[in-house]
Amino acid sequence: MGTQKKLAVLTYGCQMNKYSSERMAGMFQAQGYDMAERVQEADVILLNTCSVREKAEQKVYSQLGRLKGLKRKNPALIIGVAGCVAQQEGERLIQRMPFVDMVFSPQNVVKLPQLVQEVEEKRTRVMALGDNDAWYYHPYPVRRESRVQAWVGVMEGCDKFCSFCIVPYTRGRERSKPLSLVVQEVTQLAQAGYKEVTLLGQNITSYGKRSPEGGNLVQLLRAVHQVEGIVRLRFLTSHPREFSEELMATIAELPKVCEGIHLPVQSGSNAVLRRMRRGYTVEEYLRKVETLRRYLPEVGLSTDIIVGFPGERAADFAQTRALLEEVGYDSVYLFRYSPRPGTRAASLPDQVPEEVKSERFAELSALIEQMGLQKNRGYEGRCVEVLVEGPSKKKAHQLTGRTRNNKIVNFSGEDRLIGELVSVTITRGGPHSLEGELIES
Length: 441
Ligand code: SF4
Description:
The protein is built from 13 helices and 19 strands. By secondary structure, the chain is of the alpha/beta class. The protein has three domains: 6-132, 3-Layer(aba) Sandwich (Rossmann fold); 135-377, tm_1862 like domain (pyruvate-formate lyase- activating enzyme); 383-439, CATH 2.40.50.140. Helix 9 packs parallel to helix 11 and helix 12 packs parallel to helix 13 (354-377). The model has no long low-confidence stretch (mean pLDDT 92). Residues 158, 160-162, 165, 167-168, 202-203, 239 line the site of iron/sulfur cluster.
């Protein structure tokens, strides 16, 4: 690869994808590439895709359609498709999109420099799909967006096979990065000045599975907690079935582990949960929430909800609504069910009509907005600890950061505070964030 070339990475989907985009950018940077400010300037464009929802997948195809014109103007341009759509569509994508040069699965990001070289030298189209065990051993250079908060991938894949989910097919079986390598990566981040680390895995509560060093999430948290310089530790995403009381007690015991927990329930109806193959009942989930709140009274709880899953009757939907009200989440990621080809749920009878999904979606959106506002107003007048992440994207001269329980707080302050823990008095609670005033020390 030459110098002064430019890379653009377009990212869709979850934090795992954002993290792998940072790894891709890091690899290119190590080869002398700059980041392009606009796709039009790029020599290489990578689409890091998501196929968890149909809508996300459609976005990828429309973006590819737009990139076709750029390739026509500049035949030397290299276009690569990574992520879950790449793994799922593979050969079909290469056939359907003749201007795409590279298609590679999430596990094959490690091969990226080699793939680009092949395209450049042979002007051939390349594919790297399926698993690649080297994903965690490779000493990736990572180009991180933030200089305060860093993501660290500790697991890949999922063995749960929830009936609606494509992840086990696109990301493969659960496997864990060895604990010693995670600690090594976090230590390097601390030395580089990072203050907060979020450990990532599609199913992080299964951490340790297929790791050559074994271990579990509790042991991982304890080990990472010892890294000096890191002041906050988070982890994503937990499966309710595996969220043990031992884990709750560990979070309560370790001061750096933050009380912001994402515990996706998906539905408030046992009949729907059974068809989703989630492996727990509403009652079991509620007991976990109750225990969690006993250990962590200040916990900020978030969840995912799918509306319109096949066979979801009005009574099932009402139970989901009731569950949301009962738990009183801090935030809810709401999705309309969309059938993913190859998953069990895609062929279930009683698919819910789109207009019913939309009505249910609108009803819950309004409820979530109102609940968020009510929760956040409860913070008015309180003093909270905020890790300052950077300038606010919405308001000039404002800083943004998060509380331990994951509330976004915006307030006026100087840039020198970025990366610091500060105290802020909350003056206004909105539906999605808080506003406050800095308490000068
Ligand atoms: S636990 Fe279920 S929803 Fe989560 S990634 Fe695995 S299969 Fe998908």
